[in-house]
Write a structure and sequence with these properties.
304 residues; alpha+beta; 5-stranded antiparallel β-sheet; 9 helices; 5 strands; 38% helix; globular
Length: 304
């Protein structure tokens, strides 16, 4: 039992793989491609697997480095080229290859429409979660996951555990502070944890809870306002439609904020921690108190 708990703690504390190290990382076009593929790269980087975005035969691909020097290529259909935008294809193909061993070629996943002889996962189309699950399963079989997922976790592993919901203020004995706002309290608790974070890595893990592109708070908040807009439409009144447009605009702005801040977690983690201030030696318990030092006299003011 103790070993299982230690493994679980290590898995949760494992650092996310760093960003690629090349000059394109600072280019706006590459950052946009990275953002569009974040739902693929983020869960894999949470496993400790470095990812990069490259151009394949006819579309952009995700290249994933594995511990045995082999690599994964995760791509949309390459021939013929797809009309779908980067990161949102009609299907995904994931293969494992090795630069020095041409005999190593394995198809881990193929949900791309390909005619009569389709693989079972073709029914998933461009969905990312089944793709990550298939990769996770195969790499675990091969022993190539630096940070294996815990059995009860989804493929979207987070470096920090979600903040538990605070107890309701309606609980007997709780102080009467007015209406209950459990979601606001949960976010307030997350802010308190951020203020108390002892390292930039801890702060980055908390940012992950907000900015993760599929399950983070901003992504879910966008879904919430979009759903609220659809609910407003059900009234079939002019004001209901006007309200739905306002709520849809709010959802779009929230998603845009997530896109602007998509590398904030990595930037926070890369910050150099401040050196702790040197501690002054403590005064002996019975040391005689020193007389106060005379303050220097203030310099005379210059009169104009």
């Amino acid at each position: 039992m103790a070993a299982d708990e230690a493994n679980a703690t290590n898995a949760r504390a494992a650092p996310i793989a760093p960003l690629p190290d090349h000059r394109d990382v600072n280019m706006p076009w590459w950052q946009e491609l990275w953002r569009r593929h974040a739902h693929i790269t983020t869960p894999l980087r949470a496993r400790g697997l470095p990812c990069d975005i490259e151009f394949g035969l006819s579309a952009y691909i995700v290249r994933v480095s594995l511990p045995d020097d082999s690599y994964l290529i995760i791509s949309p259909p390459q021939e013929p080229s797809s009309d779908h935008p980067p990161g949102d294809p009609e299907g995904w193909i994931a293969t494992r290859e090795h630069p020095d061993d041409q005999t190593l070629f394995e198809v881990l996943y193929d949900s791309a429409p390909s005619g009569a002889r389709q693989r079972p996962e073709a029914r998933h189309g461009g969905s990312a979660q089944p793709l990550i699950e298939a990769i996770d399963l195969r790499l675990a079989q091969l022993g190539l996951l630096p940070h294996p997922a815990l059995p009860h976790e989804s493929p979207h592993v987070h470096p920090a555990q979600p903040t538990p919901m605070p107890p309701s203020r309606d609980t007997p004995g709780a102080p009467d502070r007015g209406p209950t706002y459990v979601y606001g309290d949960a976010l307030r608790d997350l802010t308190d944890r951020l203020n108390a974070a002892e390292s930039h890595a801890d702060a980055a893990a908390l940012l992950h809870q907000i900015l993760e592109p599929t399950d983070g708070l901003l992504a879910q908040l966008g879904e919430f306002f979009e759903a609220a807009g659809e609910k407003a439409k059900e009234a079939e009144e002019d004001d209901g439609f006007d309200l739905s447009y306002d709520l849809a605009d709010a959802a779009a702005e929230i998603r845009s904020l997530g896109e602007v801040l998509h590398v904030a977690e990595d930037r926070m983690r890369a910050l150099t921690p401040l050196a702790p201030a040197p501690r002054l030696p403590s005064t002996p318990a019975r040391a005689p108190s020193l007389p106060p030092r005379a303050l220097p006299s203030a310099p005379p003011r210059h009169m104009r």
